[in-house]
Design brief:
single chain, alpha+beta, 6-stranded mixed beta sheet, elongated
Length: 362
Amino acid sequence: MEERKEETKKGTEGRLVVGMAVAVLVVILCLMLDVRLGVGALVGIVAGSFLRPMLKDLFADEPQEEPEENRFLDTAVLRENFSIPQNLPIPYAVLDIRGRVMMYNEPFAAVFPNSEDAKPVIEVLRKTSGAGEPQRVTVGDRSYKAALNHCDVVDKSGAVGAVLTLIMVDITKTCQLEKELEEQETVVGMILLDNYDDVLDSIDENRLPILSALIDRKFNQLAQAADAVIKKLEKDRYIFLLSKGSLERLKEKKFEPFNEIKEISVGEHIPVTLSMGIGIGGGSLEDAMANAKAAMDLALGRGGDQVLIKDGEKYLFFGGKSGEIHRNARIRARVKADALWSSWGMLLTFWSWGIRMPIWTA
C-alpha cells in the first residue's frame, strides 16, 4: 500500500516538470514570433488549442481507488470473502457500516421476513450496544438478547473492510420464568381494626361476639379469594401472606373488596374501619415483615382507614377517605404514645446502666 502511494507521488512530480518545460518553450516561441513577425499572439492561441488536450491528459489525476472500508459494501464481494454459518440455530446477520442488512441466515429471516423490519432493532443496538454488549429487545411477542459486533473482512489482495455482525438469542422463556418467580414472591401484610375501641363503645356487649365472628369470616373469604393466608393475632390484629401477583390484582381493584368490612352490621354501631400495612421484601420474609411494620406505623400516623404498601424505599397509598377527625386524632395519639413509651424504656435502661457503671466526667 505504501509503495503504491510512493509511485503515485513520483508520477505526479514527473508530469509537473514536463508540463512546466512545455509551457516555457511555448512562451519563448511566442515571444520570438511576436518580435520577428508580430503574430506571436495568434500563434500562441493556435498552440494553446493544440496543447490543451495534451496538458489536460498530462495533469489529469490517476483514477482514485474506492476506499478500502467501502469495498465490501457490495454483497457479491462480501459473499466471496465472508461466509455465514447457515446451520447456526440463532438469528444472525451481516450489516454494512451504515446498518443496512446485507446477508442473513434462515432463523433471522424467520424473525424478520422483510429485512427492513429489522431497522428499529438495529437503530436501538447502534445507540446502546457497544463492543458486543448485549441488550434486551422485543420483536412482536418475543424477547431477545441482541448484540452488534464490529468485524474486519480481508480479501485476497489484503484489503480490509469493516462490517457489523448482528446476533440474537431468544430469551422469551427466561423472561416468562423471571416474571413468574417475581409474581410468586411472598408478601407480608398486617391488618388493624383501627377504630375497634370506638366500636366497643357503640355496640351492645351481647352483639360483640357476633360482630367479631362476622369480621373473621369475611377476612377468611377475602383471603381465599385473593389466594392468601390470614391469621388472627389479637382481637383487633391480623397478619396475612399472599403472593406478589395476587397483590397486583388487589392493587388494580384499589383494595375495594376490603371495604366490605365496613358494611358489616349487627345493630346500631359505627362502621368498622381498618388499616393495612403491606411489605414487599427483596426475596426475604424478614425484610418483608419489617416493611409491613413500617407501612402500618405510617398508615396509623396518617390517621388510619387506609392501605399502605412499602416496597423498598417506595410507598403506595390507597384509601383514607372515610376517616373522622376525632378518631384520627386518637390513632395519632396512640402512635405517639407507643413511640414515647419506647423512648422512655430506652431512657430507663440507660439510667439503670449508668447507676451500675458510673460515668466519670472531667
